[in-house]
Write a structure and sequence with these properties.
40% helix; Molybdenum Cofactor Biosythetic Enzyme, Chain A; 3 domains; 6-stranded mixed sheet; alpha/beta; homodimer; Maf protein
Amino acid sequence: MLAETIAVGSEMLTPFRQDTNSLFITERLNEIGVKVAFKTTVGDRMEHLVSAVRTAAQRVDIVVIMGGLGPTQDDLTRQSVAEAMGIHIRRNADIVADLYKRFAARRMSMTENNAQQADVLEGAHVVPNANGTAPAQWLDTVFGGHRKILMLLPGPPLELKPIFDQECMPRLREALPQRFIAMRTLKAAMIGESACDARIAPIYKHYPDVETTILAGGGDIQLNLICEKPALDIAQARVDELAGRIEEELDELIYSTQGESLEEIVLLYLGMKGATLAVAESCTGGLVAERITSIPGSSRAFLGGAVVYSNELKTLFAGADAGLIEQHGAVSAQVAKAMAEGIRKKTGATIGLAITGIAGPGGGTEEKPVGLVYIAVAHGKEIEVVEKNFASFSTQSTRERVRTLSAQAALDMVRRRLM
Amino acid sequence: MLAETIAVGSEMLTPFRQDTNSLFITERLNEIGVKVAFKTTVGDRMEHLVSAVRTAAQRVDIVVIMGGLGPTQDDLTRQSVAEAMGIHIRRNADIVADLYKRFAARRMSMTENNAQQADVLEGAHVVPNANGTAPAQWLDTVFGGHRKILMLLPGPPLELKPIFDQECMPRLREALPQRFIAMRTLKAAMIGESACDARIAPIYKHYPDVETTILAGGGDIQLNLICEKPALDIAQARVDELAGRIEEELDELIYSTQGESLEEIVLLYLGMKGATLAVAESCTGGLVAERITSIPGSSRAFLGGAVVYSNELKTLFAGADAGLIEQHGAVSAQVAKAMAEGIRKKTGATIGLAITGIAGPGGGTEEKPVGLVYIAVAHGKEIEVVEKNFASFSTQSTRERVRTLSAQAALDMVRRRLM
């Protein structure tokens, strides 16, 4: 069973915006065994929309159309689907009445153009939209001799997501033959894609019935395992067995077995141990703190930290002695250790984390090139420090790469420390 | 002249990845007056690829195909284009020889599958790839009685971008009728999309020959002005005139007239005044520091700062008196002011910036609800403080919204202070 998503809106054909709803839709469709074969983005132009819808209806079974259901002249999805599929449209009096009511409730008068939101494709089921004025539509029809399911959904994610989850998913489950699909996601940090594959390919090749996908980026590896069987427990057992063998092979490289992010895992471990964390960041400039504090409830284990860009702040906030910085340089194992210990002592945290390095693109020397980073973790009386080189071959992307990988490596070091 | 981008790769049909090359391609094509009418993503499956290429060749003039040029069995772009367009493929001996040389230079033996990268569409021009093994191809042909230009580009952005800029753009300029298009980008902070439009629509409606687009998100507004005329200076004059009138209307809301980001502007102003900045962040948790330090050379004006999540750190690093926090609460105008002044004094910075608020989703009270944020700027003897409420209607997105808008408002406050 194949699907296509069609994102409607000229703004998504500019250099500044792109469709992201399709990622959510894909996740949900995969859960029920539907693969997305094509994703299309099209502007608010009738002939292009008709072309996109007709092409999709010809080549897949399920078409999810997102956007273009509003009240303006640019909202052409209803008419385009009608023309592409050769279906009539009728204005639904109940929806018109409901629109009037909604506007009245806000003490606003409804302009005429709003009424087009009540236009319904013949044979379509109207799906109410709790978070907006434009209702969605579900169409189960025959086109070119084949059964086709089309969904017309509003574009704003806050409207689209609840409609898809609450209305479309149950209908899809009912409409499609029942399937049993088990999934697992494992995550690993600080191992390259090919190195990871070289280690796990000999394992997963013995599980041809489990689809194993490796996604890599920013020092993060995500392994997705999917299996379909005649019964869910059989599928789950296969996925769990493979996941177990991969975990055994990659061992402590695996940080998450249920899809959690690295910062969530670090906070989880801190919570379990009743420990607290403080950070002193130089080259990452707040990236580690930002990642941790993006998680709700992080204030329970994360005390805060210092962004110590200047040498003076490395001394003032992170307790790194000015003489030590003078002697070894701000980017050195000695200063990283002093900062980790300093921030730990100053804040009273259980664990102090420090990062100092040369993010580039400028500032490198022969002895200390761009990409050189020291990461230190102070925990009780122990201080651990590592030296890394995150240089990239492209000057353009160096700074982002060094910062991203440094933050990832630092969080991973804290995780391993807590294991 | 219309274009379609086709991103090739099954990984972009998962919930985890999406095509981003098309944003770059769109930007470049727009510069020479080509609009992107459709964007398609398709997996590594021959029949789907053929369908995508054929559909594109039927409905647009320029087709940019990205990915699927590598050495593996999954790399089907060459064969698919050949089948879709009814063109033969020939293996190019020079490219094969060059591949052998490249492998030999790295002391690696070339496996047979690499040779398919030397397969060239009949009539296509081979475009060398300095950063990878798979060359690109440029095809200027006739299909269905119309002239069509197809580009087959490698998928990795670091390979695709230089090839497109250095090889495809000059060829496109030559192949297309010469056009004269002027563009300007204005950016404004902390004004809503509809409020902005209400103020500038009465202006830009007098410039029907300039296409004005408003993009909004995260407290940031981007206004794109595009105009095409028979000569570049006439187009530029129209765009500049409209930009000038919009600048006049929005006045100090406009922070950038050449496309710079807000953090770049803040650093530029700091540099011009020989001033330095330090930040004390509570609810933004390092986001402001992270945004500033993402800019190369930021260390010249940014000293660093403190992420003061706990009350103790608000006192220790940002000098906010414990009694003051007790009396007014950590989220208060008084504490924000004390932190701004405290971080300025401690670090010796010209300007101290402080943010304290309730990011949510938990932690709100009736008196101090989720979304309440205080931002203070200390500059010399003056301290300015503002109270904001960035609450959203959706609990799901509250934390991200409050943090993003707080960081944006804080940076904008520093900018205004420096104006």
